[in-house]
Amino acid sequence: MKKMSVTKLRNFILDEAAKINETLEQGKTDVESVNADETDASDLANTLEKDLDHMKALKIHETRMKRKLAQISEAKKVVRSRIMKRLK
Question: Residue 13: which of 1, 24, 2, 5 has the closest Cα?
Answer without folding.
Answer: 5
